[in-house]
Amino acid sequence: MPTAVRFSPTRTEIAGVGVEQLARQFGTPTYVYDAAKIVERIHDLRAFDHVRYAQKACSNLAILDLMRRNGVLVDTVSAGEIRRAQAAGYALHGDPPPVVYTADIFDAEALEMVVKHSIHVNCGSPDMIEQLGRAAAGRDITLRLNPGFGHGHSQKTNTGGEHSKHGIWHADLGKCLRLAKEHGLRISGLHMHIGSGTDLEHLSQVCGALEKAAGEIGPQLASISAGGGLPIPYREEQSYVDLDAYFALWDATRQRLAAAFGHPLRLEIEPGRYLVAESGFLIAQICAVKQMGNNTFYLLDAGFNNLARPILYGAYHPMAIVPRGTAAAPLQDVVVGGPLCESGDIFTQEEGGFVRTRSLPKAEVGQYLVIECAGAYGFVMGSNYNAKPLAAEVLVCDGQPHLVRRRQTFEDIIAGEQIPGA
After folding, report:
1. 341 catalytic residue (yes or no)
2. Would you call the peptide bond into 231 cis, given omega within 30 degrees of 0 as the criterion?
3. Cα–Cα distance for residue pair 115/370, rounded to 1 Å
4. Angle between helices 200-217 and 243-261 (to 10 degrees)
């Protein structure tokens, strides 16, 4: 189990490779992932029967391949993610299902794919049960229940309660049991996820709600899922969740259900952030140092087109300067921002858009700044705002950096566009 973490205001290497070497070889901005850290986090969860990766957190094929080779199953939330899993070598069906489709809706392409390839579906709405039943009666399904309460580090990551669109409302469980029976669908799994950053007090409530719902479904259940939401520390005063206690709560729930049903149940966990966040680093170059009244700004060549979490949630990311020479530079309070024509393009902000400063070493134009713990919901939420290209992605394995996505070109950006009559 991981211990407390310390963040330094300076950084010279990532996974044993020099930051300056990576910047020279691959340019900036570039995402760099440490494969060993991902494998370490997978091993943290070995007490669970199965670890299922929520690939929405970071879906590069090289990351998915690494998960697959380390025995991790995969969760998908779109037809595109199903195809990504397939491209990374995942079989599309099996026991337990290597690939699960979890959503609150079917679009036409997703429904076609799950029917054609017999992909297991985790249904988040009664409509999904009806639609799948009409298209493919006789399947096993999982239900994702919303227990009526939620938890998260931001309202935008809270996936439970009446203000969340996610899952089947707990009071509709009986209706869903009837719909499944009408269409010959067997409910073999139950899933409950209430948001990111859950603590043990909320977890005990989730376990109780899931156990009650499982009792209504009955012995046809073969598996339960703890969902995701495992936090990681972004600040030194934050700590890791007690994984032993976390597993113990879920295992006790599973054991009580197994005793009631007269057969064992599989216990899954479905992390995204926990597996990849700490592995990821965004390398950017300082392109301007500006004094604006009392504020000093470090302006980077990376913006919220590369890392959107700060502008979306006010998310905090540790940062470090790559030093020049051996002398330690004095610390100063700075605002760190990007190049975009948007006032909100600030990495050091709180939820609500309130700009804050960060204590970082004094730096000059041309030096590199590393945004840390950026492996989850980083590249995958990137955009071409201001006609900026998507960043390159690099995976470091055994001290060797591998380009796993080349930097997008201008030709890539406009490839799908055309002028009428041209």
Report:
1. yes
2. no
3. 44
4. 20
